[in-house]
């Protein structure tokens, strides 16, 4: 299947060729024909699958039709809402790239910065608006934005929107949209609250699912390092020294944790920066640009901040902390191995994170390979002393160690949690 076979217009095909996109990704193959027909879409897909082009291209194509030629000042005809500033900027950039040879204009609005430049851009007239919910409602209330002319509405990363407490803002926006419109709804997960929300937005949608398991299992090498909480920073530094890591995105569960990791890395001479919600927009952009330009090789991020990071050459993802929501693991490791390239995802796991690991392995339907050959392997009693929760409350007898079998792989079920017979840290091989 080629882009041409999807029925795209020459002005869009030209830019895709320039971008070096050889063929549509699965989500693009499935979604573009549905959207070109004007149907509503419920998409279950994560960032990294080519989702942005899957919705941006059909919208650009519809808006390039002669009847959409602006008469007088341009009116906003397409609205995309997305949870984070980074993601909003990235989506607007994608519209600019894919629409390079069309006559369409877009702009992006988000909070945390002065509104002046955004209002000026809106006054000049745009066809496509990408927004985070809070600033969007602000500017609507100030009458800088009218949604009366919206024909295309996209709600992106719906699960993250709900996690971030945007539900009321979204409902307010939906109430202002014209009834007659094409709506697109994307979420990485489809739990019941998401399905309920989608029903309030979509008519009779077609469904498209791109399984996260496929993206993770097929393309990304996943390794697990068992380590105590206290040794995680040493292990990270050890890996940075022993692996050729050109660009590594390190995930921390908390903002405070991200700052702490960067502080310790900088202290030991590892150039790095943190990116999370407490940082100003300027600081985030500075960190991201330094990382993209290769000035710093290590970026430490929280899940939410990382959502909008689009870096093509990300070779390593390190889960310094395992996420407590298993879907976040899939999101995180999807940052590497994007659109066909391969990558490595490294996860650290301490005793307290065992339940998270179990949930992740259940979701991805496989055991993550355990790497034993490192000096910080956690063979302390800490792990066995914190027994996993069990359904019926009875205690599981500790099984004898059998590390010879499990060396280099996860071996049998929970093998890697057994205590090794020999003490002391292992030397790297
Ligand atoms: P997204 O899921 O929209 O964040 O896209 C992930 C990455 O894949 C972005 O860097 C896109 O530029 C890239 N991409 C999207 N579609 C294609 C394609 N058909 N071929 C190659 N790369 C693509």
Keywords summarizing the entry:
Rossmann fold; seven-stranded parallel sheet; alpha/beta; binds adenosine monophosphate; globular; disordered C terminus; 429 residues
Question: How are the SSEs ordered, and which strands pair?
Answer:
Layout: H1 10-19, H2 26-36, E1 41-44, H3 51-63, E2 78-81, H4 85-98, E3 106-109, H5 116-124, E4 128-131, H6 133-141, E5 152-155, H7 158-163, H8 167-176, E6 182-187, H9 192-201, E7 206-209, H10 212-219, E8 220-226, H11 232-242, E9 248-251, H12 255-267, E10 272-275, H13 281-292, E11 298-301, H14 303-306, E12 316-319, H15 326-333, E13 343-349, H16 354-364, E14 369-370, H17 382-385, H18 403-406
Parallel strand pairs: 1-6, 1-7, 2-4, 2-5, 3-4, 5-6, 8-13, 8-14, 9-11, 9-12, 10-11, 12-13
Bound molecules: adenosine monophosphate.
Polypeptide structure, described:
With 429 residues, this protein is α/β, with parallel strands linked by helices. The chain folds into two domains: 4-210, Rossmann fold (3-Layer(aba) Sandwich); 214-385, 3-Layer(aba) Sandwich (Rossmann fold). It has 18 helices and 14 strands. It has helices at 10-19, 26-36, 51-63, 85-98, 116-124, 133-141, 158-163, 167-176, 192-201, 212-219, 232-242, 255-267, 281-292, 303-306, 326-333, 354-364, 382-385, 403-406, and strands at 41-44, 78-81, 106-109, 128-131, 152-155, 182-187, 206-209, 220-226, 248-251, 272-275, 298-301, 316-319, 343-349, 369-370. α13 links the parallel β10 and β11 (298-301). The longest helix is centred in the first third of the chain and has 14 residues, at 85-98. It is globular and about 70 Å long. The relative contact order is 0.11. Adenosine monophosphate binds at residues 21, 24-25, 28, 47-53, 310, 312, 338-339.
């Amino acid at each position: 299947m080629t882009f041409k076979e999807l029925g795209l217009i020459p002005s869009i095909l030209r830019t895709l060729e320039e971008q070096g996109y050889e063929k549509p990704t699965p989500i693009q193959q499935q979604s573009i024909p549905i959207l070109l027909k004007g149907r509503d879409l419920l998409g279950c897909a994560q960032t990294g699958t080519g989702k942005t082009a899957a919705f941006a291209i059909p919208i650009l194509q519809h808006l390039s039709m002669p009847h959409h030629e602006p008469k007088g000042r341009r009116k906003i005809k397409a609205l995309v809402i997305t949870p984070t500033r980074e993601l909003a900027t990235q989506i607007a950039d994608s519209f600019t790239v894919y629409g390079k040879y069309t006559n369409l204009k877009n702009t992006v609005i988000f909070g945390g910065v002065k509104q002046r430049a955004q209002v000026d851009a809106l006054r000049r007239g745009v066809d496509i608006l990408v927004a985070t919910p809070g600033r969007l409602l602000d500017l609507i209330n100030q009458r800088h934005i009218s949604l009366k002319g919206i024909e295309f509405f996209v709600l992106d990363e719906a699960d993250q929107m709900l996690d971030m407490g945007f539900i009321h803002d979204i409902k307010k926006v939906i109430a202002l949209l014209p009834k007659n419109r094409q709506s697109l709804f994307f979420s990485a997960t489809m739990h019941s609250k998401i399905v309920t929300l989608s029903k309030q937005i979509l008519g009779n949608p077609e469904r498209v699912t791109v399984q996260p398991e496929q993206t993770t299992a097929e393309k990304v090498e996943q390794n697990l390092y068992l380590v105590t909480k206290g040794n995680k920073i040493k292990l990270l530094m050890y890996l940075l020294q022993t692996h050729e890591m050109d660009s590594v995105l390190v995930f921390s569960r908390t903002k405070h944790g991200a700052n702490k990791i960067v502080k310790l890395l900088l202290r030991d001479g590892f150039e790095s920066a943190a990116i999370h919600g407490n940082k100003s927009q300027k600081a985030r952009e500075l960190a991201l640009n330094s990382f993209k330009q290769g000035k710093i090789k290590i970026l430490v991020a929280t899940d939410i901040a990382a959502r909008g990071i689009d870096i093509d050459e990300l070779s390593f993802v390190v889960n310094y902390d395992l996420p407590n929501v298993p879907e976040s693991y899939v999101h995180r490791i999807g940052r590497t191995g994007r659109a066909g390239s391969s990558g490595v995802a490294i996860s650290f796991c301490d005793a307290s994170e065992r339940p998270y690991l179990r949930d992740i392995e259940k979701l991805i339907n496989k055991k993550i390979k355990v790497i034993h050959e490192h000096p910080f392997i956690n063979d302390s009693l800490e792990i066995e002393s914190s027994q996993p929760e069990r359904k019926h409350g009875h205690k599981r007898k500790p099984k004898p160690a059998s590390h010879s079998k499990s060396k280099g792989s996860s071996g049998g079920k929970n093998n890697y949690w057994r205590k090794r017979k020999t003490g002391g840290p292992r030397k790297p091989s």
